[in-house]
Each structure stands twice: as C-alpha cells, then as structure tokens.
Write a structure and sequence with these properties.
Blueprint: E1 5-9, E2 19-28, E3 31-40, H1 45-70
Antiparallel strand pairs: 1-2, 2-3
C-alpha cells in the first residue's frame, strides 16, 4: 500500500507547543501497526506520554482494520 504517514505540528496556543507527532501505518509480516514518533519541548510531556496509549490504542485499532479492508 502507499505511504500512509501524517505529521501534526502544534501551533503556538496548543497545550504541547512546540512539538510535532508523526504517525505511520507499517506492514510487517502480514500485520498492520501504527508507529508514532513525537518530538517537542512543550510543557507537561508526561501527560502526552502516559495518556497516549489509552487514547490512541482504540484509534490505532480502527486504522489497522480500515487498512486491512482497503488494501
């Protein structure tokens, strides 16, 4: 399938500014994964680190299912 990557760059009024997150769909050994890479120096990075899995886990599963059914 094509390169499926999106990068989100925070704006000055965002809670995690300055920062950015790239999320990519990865296919490996017949499995679909979502790889998330973030960088930044914004306030409260621990919030993003600890809240990411509970929030994004559901989103990642939905993306994986959509990619499987589309490609």
């Amino acid at each position: 399938f094509p390169d499926l990557t999106v990068t989100n760059v925070t704006l000055p009024n965002h809670f995690f500014y300055p920062g950015q997150v790239s999320r990519s769909v990865i296919s490996e050994n017949g499995e679909i994964y979502i790889q998330t890479t973030g960088t930044g120096t914004g306030r409260w990075p621990w919030v993003n680190q600890h809240a990411a899995e509970p929030y994004w886990g559901t989103v990642d599963a939905a993306i994986s299912n959509l990619v499987r059914s589309t490609f």
